[in-house]
Write a structure and sequence with these properties.
Blueprint: E1 2-9, H1 13-24, E2 29-32, E3 44-47, E4 50-53, H2 67-75, E5 83-85, E6 92-96, E7 101-104, H3 109-119, H4 124-139, H5 163-170, H6 174-181, H7 196-208, E8 211-213, H8 216-228, E9 233-236, E10 241-245, E11 254-257, E12 262-270, H9 274-280, H10 288-295, E13 302-310, E14 321-326, H11 331-334, E15 345-353, E16 359-369, H12 387-407, E17 415-421, H13 423-430, E18 451-452, E19 458-460, H14 469-485, H15 487-499
Parallel strand pairs: 1-2, 1-12, 2-9, 6-14, 12-19
Antiparallel strand pairs: 3-4, 5-8, 6-7, 10-11, 11-12, 13-16, 13-17, 14-15, 15-16, 18-19
Length: 500
């Protein structure tokens, strides 16, 4: 029977991060992943030999002293991950389609503030106060500084105020509110349900800088594989934990893998969706109140995506850029499964290098999609879906391209759709419950599943734990690693890595 120091369940960015942190501190680690490969939504796909992103499109955290830069430094892969900053005129658009209003907002928090001053001169006081509140939250969040990171959460007043409450207290201008709440799309919770604290932690980083990554999520996967080859990490794909055995004194003694192998480990950390964790752990060892709390978590929405290329476009003058298309100023309605008509839509333009070495002008357009609205096809699988499902996809893709042409009329006749994906596509390819994009909906007043569970050697990390997205998922792994390795040793490890 094999013995490991740690088992990490889930090969997405959180699991990869935790495995490397533990191995860098001398631990023998087994990483198990249900899919045939590691990477999760970081994995890219190719159409006509052109690469497209699956679920990782852009990120914050690369500004000077940014949390993502520091985490990559500690992981030993900072030089392998090359950000492509999205900045300059036309790179950050907020479009209110009904009124045909376009706001071209510059990158960088100060530039962002000044851009809003230009468009909303009568709201300068509100804009300034909003930015000040965002900065306050950042400075009051220890988990955004690796030297202060810790497992115990420290709530602040802004964690008990909704984003909607804060915006309503600052301004009555609905278009300004729409811009300030638009990044709700990046974590899947509307202004009435999310706390201002969580919004500020996510959106504040995106105001400071937004970047794509050269070679997309594949760059992360290659970097981790390179580090794994130098570490005591064993990777086992097409596998998960099927059973926990020999539970004594609230500690699991043996873990049975889905491939039939039985192993032992000092502890096990799950970085997968909470719903999937409850399917694995023995329920008799948890109180009903705990099970009810976790079962009540709502799964976040997913996306309907259209990926294609603009032919006859000049790669030297094509992105990168992000345009947020908003049919209305009400983000609460736009992020609701009850929304009728068009949803919010993000259009990302960028230049990618194909397998043939040529440059291609690519477009990824994605808008919220709800599993509940596709339940009539929920029992189908890839390649075996009914004709009306494909008709639904074709009609939705047609509406997306029409909105693309309204913003960029020069692309009409030159844009070629190469692929479309629904939440069912994401569910089946990524083993993601309901095809969700951000794990659970992280709502105000909710206690997420995170850290040590009632079974004393079982831990939880991932994007459902602290904050959604790549930065939040990685931060959660740093916090859990600190607890597993020990505060003093881990702090010494962090200081040494950041000083190099």
């Amino acid at each position: 029977m094999k013995k490991y120091d740690h088992i990490v369940v889930g090969g997405g960015i959180s699991g990869l991060t935790l495995a490397q942190l533990l191995a860098s501190n001398g631990k023998k680690v087994l990483l198990v992943e249900k899919a045939p490969h590691i990477g999760g939504s970081l994995v890219r796909f190719y159409k006509k030999d052109i690469p497209f992103d699956t679920g990782f499109h852009f990120t914050a955290g690369f500004s000077k002293g940014g949390i993502l830069t520091d985490m990559l430094q500690v992981l030993g892969m900072r030089e392998q991950i090359k950000p492509i900053f999205i900045s300059g005129p036309g790179s950050g658009l907020f479009v209110f389609e009904k009124e045909n209003l376009i706001y071209d907002v510059s990158a960088g928090t100060e530039n962002f503030r000044l851009s809003l001053h230009k468009y909303f001169p009568e709201e300068t006081a509100a804009i300034n106060e909003y930015i000040a509140k965002v900065k306050k939250v950042f400075s009051s969040t220890p988990s955004l500084d690796l030297r202060k990171i810790g497992l115990s959460s420290q709530t602040i007043d802004e964690d008990y105020l909704s984003l909607q409450q804060v915006l309503d207290s600052l301004t009555q201008d609905n278009h300004l509110k729409g811009i300030l709440s638009a990044f709700c799309v990046c974590y899947g919770v509307g202004p009435k349900e999310t706390s201002f604290g969580n919004h500020a932690r996510i959106a504040g980083g995106l105001y400071e800088s937004v970047a794509r990554i050269e070679n997309g999520g594949e760059a992360f996967i290659r970097a981790f594989k390179n580090r794994f080859s130098q570490s005591s990490i064993e990777v086992c794909c097409n596998t998960t934990i099927s059973q926990c055995q020999d539970i004594k004194n609230d500690c699991v003694g043996k873990f049975v893998l889905s491939n039939g192998q039985t192993i032992t480990a000092d502890d096990c950390t799950f970085t997968i969706h909470p719903q999937e964790i409850l399917k694995i752990l023995p329920r008799q060892h948890f109180k009903k109140a705990f099970l009810d709390r976790v079962s009540a978590f709502e799964t976040s929405y997913g996306f309907f995506c259209v990926s294609g290329v603009v032919e006859n476009a000049d790669p030297s003058n094509f992105g990168p850029s992000i345009a947020s298309l908003l049919p209305s100023t009400d983000l609460n309605s736009l992020l609701s499964p009850e929304q009728k008509g068009e949803t919010a839509l993000a259009i990302i333009r960028c230049v990618e290098t194909g397998r043939d070495g040529k440059k291609y002008c690519t477009v990824n357009a994605f808008g919220p999609e709800f599993y509940s609205n596709l339940k009539q096809w929920a029992d189908s699988s890839i390649g075996k879906r009914p004709a009306d499902y494909y008709e639904y996809k074709a009609q939705r893709a047609k509406r997306v391209t029409q909105r693309l042409y309204a913003l960029y009329p020069q692309y009409r006749g030159n844009f070629k759709v190469l692929d479309t994906a629904s939440v069912l596509t994401f569910r089946d390819y990524l083993f993601s419950p309901e095809g969700n994009a951000y794990g659970i909906k992280q709502k105000m007043g909710q206690f997420n599943l995170f850290g040590k569970l009632p079974l004393m050697n079982i831990y939880v990390a991932g994007q459902s734990a602290v904050l959604p997205g790549i930065v939040g998922a990685m931060v959660s792994s740093f916090i859990v690693a600190r607890n597993l390795i020990g505060k003093e040793k881990f702090n010494h490890f962090i200081e040494g890595a950041l000083s190099n």
